[in-house]
Amino acid sequence: MKEYITFVHTTIVMTIEETIQARTLPLSRKLTINLLYSANWANDILIETIKPFDISLQQFNVLRILRGQQNQPANLSTINSRMVAKTSNTTRLVDKLISKGYTDRTICPSNTRKVEITITEKGLTLLNTIDPIINTAEKKVTAQLNDHELELLNKLLNKLRQ
Fold this sequence. Notes:
Blueprint: E1 3-7, E2 10-14, H1 16-20, H2 27-50, H3 57-68, H4 76-82, H5 90-99, E3 103-107, E4 115-119, H6 121-142, H7 147-160
């Protein structure tokens, strides 16, 4: 599978070997490098997309997790387990979102050792603003693939992680 890199108005089709300037690679290393390179490429597109909103991709992920809770609070452990990129600084991510007014933290009434995190109206409004912009960026990431290829690639990636 060739990788597409766009510079200004020119599209250059390069294999991963050409991109990293390697002669030949064992197939398993080629795939590993290609996965990492492609993940970083997609990550960079998404980071640039949300940059104007002054939140990180991890903070954006936390907000989407909290929205998915459908008005139910989540604890830090739940948030961390659902993160796309597992991190040890979930508390710090939530603290930053609280300082921006996007989330709230309360102590659970039935268990005072448990902290509950919820998304605020301001956080929901931000996500509603970002959603169409992120959807466009995600389509840019997958533009070279048709629906069948997207489904197949998803199945293969799921299989790879089993």
